[in-house]
Amino acid sequence: MKIVVLGGAGAMGQVIVKDLCESATANGVVIADFNETKASELKAKLNSPKLYTAFADIRNASQLAQVLQGATVVVNSTPYYFNMNVMEAALAARCHYVDLGGLFHITRRQLELHQKFLEKNLLAVIGMGAAPGMTNIMAAHAVADLEQVESIDIIDGCVDFTKTEHPFFPPYALDTILDEYTKEPMVFENGEFAAKPPMSGEILVDFPHPVGRTKAIFTLHSEVATLPVSFKDKGITNVTFRLGLPTDFHERLKFLVELGFGSSEPVSLAEGPAVPRKVLAKLLERFPTPNEDPDDCEVIRVDVKGTKNRKKSLVRMETTVYSHPHWKVSCGALDTGVPPSIVAQMVGQGLISDKGVLPPEVCVPPEPFFHELAIRTITVRKITENVLA
Question: Is pLDDT above 70 for 388?
Answer without folding.
Answer: no
